[in-house]
Write a structure and sequence with these properties.
alpha/beta, about 20% strand, globular
């Protein structure tokens, strides 16, 4: 097969795959933004309805790392996956990377979402930020913590 014919066939396969593969938006996962009190525009993904579950990825990871969890839990919950400042599709400011500021970002996201109780799941360094938020604000509003891994170790 000639190189040009191979390239045309490869392009056709890629186009077909992109048409057949559902995008996050087609699966009901919406891309949204909010602005923090220090003026930084943060991105998050939202899917489903019901009690709120907020997923925060580890350092340098985007919200998209939670794609499987978004799809799974959106069947029964409102699921939010945050792109913390400097990560994913959020702004990348020169300031605000201290754990206290990043915990405040999560708090401000919760307020932006309506201030209802939520389950917070932080992975890697985000666990520290979720714990700091809980220490600062308490759990009287029903928020709880779950330190999961965004990768599945099960076979199903």
């Amino acid at each position: 097969m000639s190189t040009s014919r191979f390239l045309r066939a490869s392009m056709l396969v890629l186009v077909c795959l992109s048409i057949l593969t559902p995008t996050l938006a087609q699966e009901g996962i919406r891309s949204r933004h909010f602005q923090t009190s220090d003026g930084v525009r943060l991105h998050y993904l939202e899917a489903g309805a019901g009690k709120t579950l907020v997923l925060v990825p580890g350092w340098s990871m985007p919200a998209d790392i939670w794609e499987h969890q978004l799809r799974h839990f959106a069947k029964t919950h409102r699921v939010i996956a945050l792109d913390p400042r400097g990560q994913g599709r959020s702004e990348k400011p020169a300031h605000g990377y201290q754990p206290a500021r990043r915990a405040l970002d999560i708090s401000e996201l919760l307020e932006h979402l309506g201030g209802e109780p939520a389950v917070l799941a932080g992975w890697s360094i985000a666990t520290q930020e979720v714990l700091l938020l809980t220490h600062e604000e308490g759990t009287e509003n029903g928020r709880s913590i779950a330190p999961p891994s965004p990768t599945s170790t099960s076979n199903g």
